């Protein structure tokens, strides 16, 4: 099948850019130095590619992601890097021997939930500066003790310096160090051998974590690329021009139902400036220098990959560019929902 | 089942608010005066409620929506109010006798696509001021002629005054009139008995269309409600507090994967101000006056219903409020994708 035969709108993975991204990351953080974050792509088929590149430990954000990874036999070491109040579905996976599952805890309640649900291993999630989940660093040792008292194995700590991913490079390194010192202090209180942190924006300057939780690097988006320029845009929306107005604009058949919009407007490649996005449309400006016609196919780059992928049920993997590009694979987005 | 038994995050329809919205609209625009827009809720179960309220003609934005409505035997008059370049899937529905299908056309190419795909009926889509699809009003007669020459039945015109939905009331009425005069002029050139226009924001002041295309009114959202205050919030995200920080914030387990974000941040009801939304989290401010605890359930109102619904595979219908509310129905969101 050629890309030109694929109905629009469709989510497309550029195989060469994807391979570049995977190879670049695997060279920087081989094997278990990287714990790829499944939330960024929600596809066991894509995760299998990362396993083939040497990464066998994965990070998940939802129970559904853990279940899907276990069912796909990618469960040798799954970290649910999020707080969960009802762990029975996770415990069932462990009881069935389908996966090794570790869950993040940051409170007495989440420790109790892990114990009650039958999840045997935890990481203590520590607030390292991003106001989200994670206990205060000084409370980590107490939570670890409580977990051990509840019969849980405490593997170590995690902390996400998400507030630093977009810092200018010259400030980023020092800021990550300061953030990770908080995590290492907590680790000294907690014990265990895991210090899990980081993301695509700090993969090459977080020198303190034992493993980096990165996922966006696989597919990338327009918002993130300036902050991790070693990677390439490997995901786009394949769309069709359905209307051209003589007033100086045109419309493609992809919109809010196909694009995560929290990071702003998408980029209509080689066409014109995005004017606005509606449910099933992007209206963009046209010019005599860049004429478009009804029926033209256009690539649209999302501003944020993660919520974009969550709107699709599959990704078409292609080698090459344009309508003649060969579709070599279709990856189901099989980890949606909760 | 009680709402308290539903795993979070979950999309919830407040039955009483929904009934109020449906009743209010059906009183204002009974039967075929309203052509409910399926894109706003993407559920044949919900559409069936509207059919029971007297509306048997529906509006769709995608081929998938038309297919799903036809399969659900809700296809007595389906308008695909959008331009389509490949109509064979629509033609197959018509050929099978599964639905009456009309498609919007605004160019020679879309007329040719309807004819080639076997869609026998069209509306000429006219630009009435929103820079999106739709031919210029002066070109509508020519396109209708072209459609008739291609053997198509031209049922009339459509035009969406989407740029006026949020106008202050005192300017809205005159602006809608000016916009609809463009559509009526085109209609005079086109013929047919349908003048399809409008939306939830103009349902009560568009006096010129023969039918109004509204969908948001069923569920409503925080962005739209001020512009259509006769309706009520009938949709919310049911979420759990998973982390509380002594620094003055807390986190619920619903985020970008559960909420359309193009219209801005959601509202965390009765809790605190939304600080930011991540993939699976909303961080919101807390205060001594509004304490929250880990495990609390919280309602979150989306800023934009349409793309929010597209992220979920079902809606739980409840009577009452809070964990003891009775779940009376589960409506599959069965019209996602394209």
The string of secondary-structure elements of chain A, in order, is: EHHEHEHEHEHEHEEEEEEEEHEE
Q: Biggest sheet of chain A, open or closed, and with what strands and sense?
A: 9 strands, mixed
Question: Average pLDDT across residues of chain A?
Answer: 97
Globally, the shape of chain A reads elongated
Query: How widely separated are the two ends of chain A?
Result: 33 Å
The percent range for helix content of chain A is 25-40%
- Taking Cα atoms only, what radius of gyration of chain A do you get, to the nearest Å? 21 Å
Structural class of chain A: alpha/beta
CATH architecture of the largest domain in chain A: Alpha-Beta Barrel
Strand content of chain A: 15-25%
If interface size is counted as residues with C-beta under 8 Å from the partner's C-beta, which chains form the largest one? A-B, 56 and 57 residues
Q: Could you name the CATH topology of the largest domain in chain A?
A: TIM Barrel
Please explain how this structure is put together.
2 copies of one chain form a homodimer. By secondary structure, chain A is α/β, with parallel strands linked by helices. The first copy, chain A, has 2 domains: 3-11 and 231-332, Lyase, Ornithine Decarboxylase, Chain A, domain 1, CATH 2.40.37.20; 30-213, Alanine racemase (TIM Barrel, Alpha-Beta Barrel). Chain A is 26% helix and 23% strand. Chain A has 8 helices and 16 strands. Chain A has helices spanning 15-28, 44-52, 63-71, 88-95, 108-117, 140-149, 169-190, 305-309, and strands spanning 10-14, 58-60, 78-80, 101-105, 121-125, 153-159, 194-197, 211-212, 235-245, 249-252, 267-268, 274-277, 282-285, 297-301, 314-319, 326-332. In chain A, strands 1, 9, 10, 11, 12, 13, 14, 15 and 16 form a 9-stranded mixed β-sheet that branches. In chain A, a hairpin with a 4-residue loop joins strand 12 (274-277) and strand 13. In chain A, helix 6 packs across helix 7 (169-190). Chain A is elongated, with a radius of gyration of 21 Å. At the A-B interface, strand 9 of A face strand 9 of B.
């Amino acid at each position: 099948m050629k890309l030109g035969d694929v109905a629009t709108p469709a989510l497309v993975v550029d195989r060469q850019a994807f391979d570049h991204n995977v190879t670049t990351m695997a060279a920087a953080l081989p094997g278990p130095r990287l714990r790829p974050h499944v939330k960024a792509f929600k596809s066991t088929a894509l995760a299998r590619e990362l396993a083939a590149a040497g990464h066998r430990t994965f990070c998940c954000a939802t129970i559904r992601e853990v279940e899907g990874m276990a069912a796909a036999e990618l469960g040798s070491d799954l970290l649910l890097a999020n707080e969960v109040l009802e762990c029975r579905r996770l415990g069932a996976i462990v009881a069935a021997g389908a996966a090794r599952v570790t869950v993040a805890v940051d409170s007495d309640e989440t420790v109790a939930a892990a114990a009650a649900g039958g999840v045997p291993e935890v990481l203590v999630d520590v607030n390292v500066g991003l106001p989200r989940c994670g206990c205060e660093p000084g409370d980590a040792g107490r939570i670890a003790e409580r977990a051990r008292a509840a019969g849980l194995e405490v593997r170590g700590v995690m902390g996400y310096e998400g507030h630093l991913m977009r810092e200018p490079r010259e400030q980023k390194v020092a800021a990550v160090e300061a953030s990770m010192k908080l995590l290492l202090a907590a680790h000294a209180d907690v014990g265990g051998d895991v210090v899990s942190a980081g993301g695509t924006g700090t993969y090459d300057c977080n020198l303190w974590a034992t493993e980096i939780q990165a996922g966006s690097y696989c597919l990338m988006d327009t918002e993130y690329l300036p902050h991790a320029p070693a990677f390439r845009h490997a995901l786009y929306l394949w769309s069709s021009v359905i209307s051209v107005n003589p007033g100086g604009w045109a419309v493609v058949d992809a919109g809010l139902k196909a694009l995560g919009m929290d990071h702003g407007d998408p980029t209509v490649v080689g066409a014109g400036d995005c004017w606005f996005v509606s449910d099933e449309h992007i209206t963009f400006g046209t010019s005599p220098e860049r004429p478009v016609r009804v029926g033209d196919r256009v690539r649209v780059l999302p501003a944020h990959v993660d919520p974009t992928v969550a709107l699709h049920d599959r990704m078409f993997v292609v080698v090459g560019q344009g309508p003649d590009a060969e579709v070599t694979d279709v990856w189901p987005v099989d980890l949606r929902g909760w």
